[in-house]
Prior knowledge:
With about 130 residues, the chain is mainly α.
Amino acid sequence: MKPFSKKFFATFFFILLSFLAGVIGGLFGTGGGILIVFLISYVYKDSSALDRKDMFAMTVLTVAIMSASSLFLYIKDGAVHISDITPTLFPAVVGGLCGAFLLDKIDTKWLNRIFAVLMIYAGATLIFRA
Length: 130
């Protein structure tokens, strides 16, 4: 019997973390994207084709798909009503467009720092306000 290859474990790891990201995003409404950033960074760490900005853009697409699928179930189950989220839609779209525009304007080093500060703030808030 042939042992499992390194590629098999990498693929398994990729699928497992993607699944966990979806579960976390579905449970908490956020957080799955953090796993996706880690996952994409790990998978493409040796690739010169992708820089950090590309990885953030890939994460946005993945999170959008996870969020849309979770939202569909929340609406179907009556947990969320379209009228509840309507006031936030336009500002969120404008903010998303601004963020996508700024992604090309801000140095990757600063994006990493901003992301790290946001993660630390979010973690501290959850710990100390719980």
